[in-house]
Amino acid sequence: MLQLRRIILEGEGVENASVSFDSAANIIAGESDTGKSYLLHCIDYIFGSDDLRKRVPQAEPYSRLLVEFQNSGGQFLCLVRHLSGGDLSAYRCRAEDITGDGEKIAYRRHGKSIAPDVTSVLFPFSGIPEATLRANNDGKTQRLSIRNFIPPILVDEISVIEEQSPVLGRSGYDSTARERMFAFMLSGKDDRGVIAAERREITTTRLNAQLGLIVDLLAPLEKRLVGEDSEGLTGNIERVEATIASVTASIEQHEDERVRLVNGRQSAIADHQRAETQLVAIDELLTRYRLLAERYSSDLERLDFISEGSHYFESLQDVKCPLCDQLMTPEHSHVAMAGSENVYVSARAEAAKILALRGDLDDAVASLEARREVRSHELTIAQRTLAHTTNRLEEIVQPALRADARRLQNLLDRRVALETTKSDREQLETLLAKKEEIERTAASSRAGKREWEPLPGKALRDFCDEVEAVLKEWQWNGTGRVEFDARSYDLIVDGQARQSHGKGVRAVLYSAFVIGLLRFCARNNRPHPGFVVIDSPLTSYKKRGAQVNGTEGPISLGVEAAFWDALKRVPPGIQIIIVENKEPPADVAEAVHYEWFAGDTAEPGDRIGFIPPHKKS
Q1: 549 within 8 A of 501, measured Cβ to Cβ
Q2: Residue 318 near residue 327 (C-beta atoms within 8 A)
Q3: Is the CB of residue 30 less than 8 Å from the CB of residue 598?
Q4: Chain mean position to CA 162
Q5: Which of 175, 297, 303, 482 is deepest in the core (most CB within 10 A)?
Q6: Pseudo-torsion of CA 591, 597, 603, 605, nearest 10°?
Q7: What pLDDT, in 10s, does the model give residues 204-216?
Q8: What pTM, to 2 d.p., does this model score?
Q9: What is the CB-side half-sphere exposure of residue 111 using CA atoms within 13 A?
Q10: Of 156, 162, 134, 131, whose CA–CA distance to 488 is shortest?
């Protein structure tokens, strides 16, 4: 927890305006227009208010506000802000020790900013953990800030007598967050982890849009499915699948046969080409061999002629030599070289050689003719195989494949149609189920709001007991039985709501609420800034002759005296600051930290007000 130590105004050429506070009880009393209420506005401003909501003429020369705090660990923190607005500077020291520019902090975070601000500095300093509060009934959350604590720690002279809740204050836009802040103060448990739901208007709009989309999607589906038998749809798909499997197997068999026939035809074509090529080569060789045989026969005939002619050569007349066209005399060179006998022998020898060669030629011809017969047979077989495979491919296998392919395509088209119908049926059922779910959700959304955990019962009872103890110390006229009204977030004392009392009693009960809450949090180590400032808890509207607890009556004088007396017993661990027009009893003024602002009636030595009347040279 933390406590206020000083509030200071600084300006150029003027004496500082300063007021100090101690632990436990503090009383700032005095005449009207002496700056007492202005102190609350200074605290509110340093706690991140957009502007200084109350401005007094006496403060015009001042430009800077300093507020000094001290926490339970004895550390000091001084926050400084220009009176014209803007962000702050934070100094981890006493006001008189300030040097430099300090730590720049925002007066409040905006949007999703995570920049340092007043809350991020004050909470760690006072020992309050960072917390998340539910901000509305849909579960949207927000960060706990020092601004949420304003109603139960800064009670101005208007709020103290009005009928609004001490928790909620006059602002209604963040009531849920302040309700959750009160629960956090009672239990120490925040709303971290709460999952937000959409706002009802957004939810309704979203559901209506979804419903409209689903209706648009259902229309063409229902039109397509008119007359479709959903009962036998699965069986038809299964039968089509079985037929597709059978036709596919048939196609595979025909394809295997086609491959086999194509391979056989290619092999037959290769055999045909090879046999045909070899036959051409063999016929060419046979033709040449026949020409060679004819040459051999011609040579043999010539040799026979020569050998026969040599027998009659000598008995011939001189004639010209058939070889050299010279007279064949005995001296003729041809005759001299070889006689008729030699010619005959040579001719017969040459004939024998030719006959041997012709025998070899005959064997070669016989061999070629045998090979030709084999190749002719192979050619015939290849031609028959080629004709058979071609005929089977073109007349049986390929037509069967084309027929099976057409049948398979038809089956596939049928299966696609059945699957599409099945998908449409399933989509229709899904959309109808979704439509029903959206209609139930929309009806549930219209039926009522979300239910959330109530305030912690035991902690709430302990808090009420603490308020009862405060009222008992103040000598409340009655049993002082305190209950908490969860609808108005306010007290019910002795069966009567605080709002139904007069202004004076409302002020006392408001004060009892915030002091009791401070004491409860300090006693149970619950989050609380550590101080309260109450403006005019005893200065209330009075009506002569009214009842003590009537709708417009003043507070009891016994309660007022006991109120002052109780301040003497405030423990130092907490801080209560009372701002009043009335002077406290002398013994109370002696026991607490007391400041009197005399105003226009000030005598020498008296303090006129918060702001001194003279300038500093």
Answers
A1: yes
A2: yes
A3: yes
A4: 48
A5: 482
A6: 60
A7: 788 888 888 988 8
A8: 0.63
A9: 2
A10: 162
